[in-house]
# Entry
Amino acid sequence: MATVSDRRVPFEGATNFRDLGGYRTGTGATVRWRKVFRADSLHGLGPDDLVRYEALGLRAVYDLRGEVERQERPDPVESRHLPVSGRPADAPPAEGLTGDDGERILRDLYVGLIEHAAVLIGQLFTGLAADDGLPAVFHCHAGKDRTGVVAALLLEALGVDRKAILDDYQLTARYRLRVQQESSYQSLINLGLSPEAAAGVLATPRWAMDEALDDLDRRHGGIEAYLVGPAGVARSNLGRLRRVLLDP
# Structure
């Protein structure tokens, strides 16, 4: 059984860079180690980090951030831009929201990502299934929300138990430090959120991801129907993805 410490790649400039290997599926297969990683922003990788990065032999990097984020904090390595987004920008939220309201904002964001970024998520999954698609990493700013949704969908597609998927999502709380969230926290305050709601948005509430995955099941009839349907993944590529990422 993999331990938490096995998952994190010990970079100095990226604290939430984690291996998705080691998780078991309902059929007893195991996700292969050192094949696919999830991460926070890579812009802080220093010279020693880049030596360790090269040793991973990554063939593909998927940057899920928006264009402004990429320009302000560019990746130090070549990456493919897949700007997943949950919904168009809304008016600033009302003041006085609670921490529970902040968590509900997250739940709605995750549902929106699954629905509105389906094509881009499908492109990422298709890329992972390509002959030269692995090893690979996908990342956003914090490695929590956009990255968290994609990681959850990938593990779901591989047949990993929902409990393990939610455990993986919550690991961000261990590795994404409060000091690293300060700029995000201030941005949320500037948008009109109360401090309590902003803290809720920066949390990793298990129920929010769980409900988003349940919503996918209700709308689409399960992860496979979602991927071969709105996400546009060829069934042959989905099968190949499972073959290359799972040890029987």
In short: The domain at 4-247 is CATH 3.90.190.10 (Protein-Tyrosine Phosphatase; Chain A). The two ends are 15 Å apart (CA to CA).
